[in-house]
Amino acid sequence: MLSERRLEVLRAIVQDYVGTEEPVGSKALTERHRLGVSPATVRNDMAVLEEEGYIAQPHTSAGRIPTDKGYRLFVDKLAGVKPLSTPERRAIQNFLDGAVDLDDVVGRTVRLLAQLTRQVAVVQYPSLTRSTVRHVELLSLAPARLMLVLITDTGRVEQRLVDCQAPFGEASLADLRARLNSRVVGRRFTDVPPLVQDLPESFEAEDRGTVSTVLATLLETLVEEAEERLMIGGTANLTRFGHDFPLTIRPVLEALEEQVVLLKLLGEANESGMAVKIGHENAYEGLNSTSVVSVGYGSGGETVAKLGVVGPTRMDYPGTMGAVRAVARYVGQILAES
User: Fold this and answer.
1) What is the pLDDT of residues 267-299, one digit of tens each?
2) Residue 237: what pLDDT?
3) What is the pTM of this model?
4) DSSP type of residue 278
């Protein structure tokens, strides 16, 4: 276990290195921070921190920089989440409140996160598998062709064409729409199948085939492995941090193009709390020089997806964590009110 003084020295090194981009020496630490000890004592503390693997010495400098292990300890023990200012919170709310639909919410969230953190922002669309039914609409396109529209509690809209076995009248369509909604609205997708299985039997014999076809289409929409969707923004921000990547930012850019990689980075959306993955904690080799800060968002206390940012390990962790958490909270409020 490190002493409180050495933890303070590590905190000071992280803060200075993040702020100045320069390796930090003992003389600078004693000048900038009230550590209450001499530069010689600080040098001794830095030697212990280096021996323990929390800081390292770049080849070309007498100063020290934090390692992944050092950043990990900083995040776990030393970094509070920096609250946003009142003007920042008001700006977030005003910007997101202008969204007109789910795509607009996600798009605005990506732009906002990228601007607030000056990192790469990644936002996962709410997953169908964690949604509840808000409404099922049935529209007649032709005597024997319908459109089924499924609207989720998160504002996601899925449309399917249904070719019927025989013409289906407007009265029958209205009846099916009403009965269907009375059974499934507000229900989790996984709960719907047993609730509608006996529905065809309550219709006239000539309509049962069409009702069964509509239900089959609905259930396929509910249970199919819908492709997880992501939106990413702010990739150009990485160019400001070229010197933070050992050789080139190309591996980072290539990783950001792989949607599967990004989904794994964000983690399972039903996880609660904020996750911070630092450097080599990221399993994908191309992202070993980055950190990922992510958190779940949703409404009614239930997480439906995740959002986060990707940037160099030399990151303002308290500020980034505060921005990510605040934006997630506002997005959740919008979903609850939509």
Assistant:
1) 744 455 888 999 988 888 888 889 999 999 887
2) 85
3) 0.77
4) E
Structure tokens at 277: 């993955």
User: Do the Cβ atoms of 64 and 57 come closer than 8 Å?
Assistant: yes
At position 154, the amino acid (one-letter code) is T
Summarised one tens digit per residue, pLDDT across range 181-199 is 999 998 888 888 899 989 9
In sequence order, what are the residues at sequence separation of 6 or more whose Cβ sits closer than 8 angstroms to the Cβ of residue 201?
Answer: 208
- Take residue 25 and report the two structure tokens written for it: 């020496």
**Which residue from 63, 42, 62, 66 is spatially nearest to 53, judged by alpha carbons?**
66
Give how far the C-alpha of residue 187 lies from the chain's centroid of Cα atoms, to the nearest Å: 25
Per-residue pLDDT tens digits for 79-88 = 778 888 898 8
CA distance 70 to 310: 18
Q: What is the DSSP letter of 188?
A: B
- Note the pLDDT tens digit of each residue in 217-258: 998 887 754 557 888 998 888 887 767 776 667 878 888 888
The residue type of 270 is N
Lay out the sheet containing 133-142: strands in order across: 133-142, 145-152, 157-163
Q: How many residues does the chain have?
A: 338
Q: What are phi and psi of 185, to 5 degrees?
A: -60, 130
| CB of 172 closer than 8 Å to CB of 203 | yes
Q: Residue 226 in contact with residue 128, Cβ under 8 Å?
A: yes
Which single residue is written with the structure tokens 């062709």?
145
Q: Which residue has the tokens 């992280």?
A: 14
* Main-chain phi, psi angles of 87, to 5 degrees: -60, -35
Nearest to 309 by CA among 92, 118, 127: 118
Which pLDDT belongs to residue 185? 93
Q: What angle do CA 313, 316, 247 make, to 5 degrees?
A: 25
- Tell me the pLDDT tens digit for each residue of 114-151: 999 999 999 988 876 667 898 999 999 988 899 999 98
Considering only CA atoms, which of 81, 83, 79 is closest in space to residue 7?
79
Question: If DSSP codes are grouped into helix, strand and coil, which group holds residue 221?
Answer: helix
Element spanning 333, H or E: helix 317-337
